[in-house]
Amino acid sequence: MSDRPLVIAVDGPAASGKGTIAKGLAQHFGLPHLDTGKLYRAAALALLRHDGDPESEFSAVRAAQDIAGLLDDPELKSEMVGGIASRISAYPAVRAALLERQREFAAQPSGAVLDGRDIGTVIAPDATAKLFVTASSEERARRRHAELSASGLPVHLADVLIDIRARDERDSHRSAAPLVQAGDALLLDTTSLDPAAALAEAIRLVESRLRS
Ligand SMILES: Nc1ncnc2c1ncn2[C@@H]1O[C@H](COP(=O)(O)OP(=O)(O)OP(=O)(O)O)[C@@H](O)[C@H]1O
Ligand SMILES: Nc1ccn([C@@H]2O[C@H](COP(=O)(O)O)[C@@H](O)[C@H]2O)c(=O)n1
């Protein structure tokens, strides 16, 4: 077994359960965790609050440089913010503005768990273990719909499914750091797993990497 810090990269599409798994892995292995989607969402929120134009890369980069104080804002969770995050995250200069912070987090001597879209491919290509977490788009829409309804944000399931599919399309087909399973990532399909079973499988997969 290597004595390098344990770094776990968790990537996957929207509402696949990667954040839930990443948090659970962090707790299990005693590591700090970063939800990198929050950085893109915070940039989107900064843009919205400054009446910026998502069509302007310049405007989006300025927003990405101005996310202090926004990382725990409850508005980050809204579908509107998630949609704008997915649009502006396609700009290479926005990704560049958020890169160093993520790399520094991954390089902590303690090790780390990060979840997002490009952790295993761009942010931490040398991660000890990489998981690509997925689930069918219908199941992901069901989960996101339940989450939004529980937090008092009424939305139609059909609209959530359309939004999830649009997000998948944008995240997977952009030229800058697209959502793609890294060649050495282990696939974890959570469609028919509850959160506890998904985490148990994730721990098993990480441990299998630690032994290899
Ligand atoms: N295996 C699972 N079965 C059922 N529900 C789940 C499962 N995993 C997570 N959830 C629920 O689905 C919703 C989305 O999960 P989570 O936030 O972990 O996904 P995510 O991939 O990190 O989403 P995003 O990156 O788009 O914010 C949450 O409400 C979470 O509690
Ligand atoms: N590493 C990442 C993380 C996120 N994004 C983009 O942000 C959007 C919102 O992310 P959530 O995980 O909170 O849903 C997402 O749709 C991606 O477009 C990213 O590009 N890279």
TrEMBL record:
Annotated signal sequence range: none
UniProt feature coiled coil, ranges: none
Native species: Sphingomonas astaxanthinifaciens DSM 22298
Enzyme Commission numbers on file: 2.7.4.25
Catalytic activity, reaction form: dCMP + ATP = dCDP + ADP; CMP + ATP = CDP + ADP
Keyword annotations from UniProtKB, A to Z: ATP-binding, Cytoplasm, Kinase, Nucleotide-binding, Transferase
Family assignment from sequence similarity: Belongs to the cytidylate kinase family. Type 1 subfamily.
Keyword Transferase attached: yes
UniProt KW Secreted keyword: no
Lineage: Bacteria, Pseudomonadati, Pseudomonadota, Alphaproteobacteria, Sphingomonadales
Subcellular location field: Cytoplasm
Family matches, as Gene3D superfamilies: P-loop containing nucleotide triphosphate hydrolases
Gene from which this protein is expressed: cmk
Cytidylate kinase domain segment(s): 8-206
CDD domains, per the entry: CMPK (cd02020)
Name of this protein: Cytidylate kinase
Single GO term (MF): kinase activity
Superkingdom: Bacteria
Residues annotated as binding ATP: 12-20
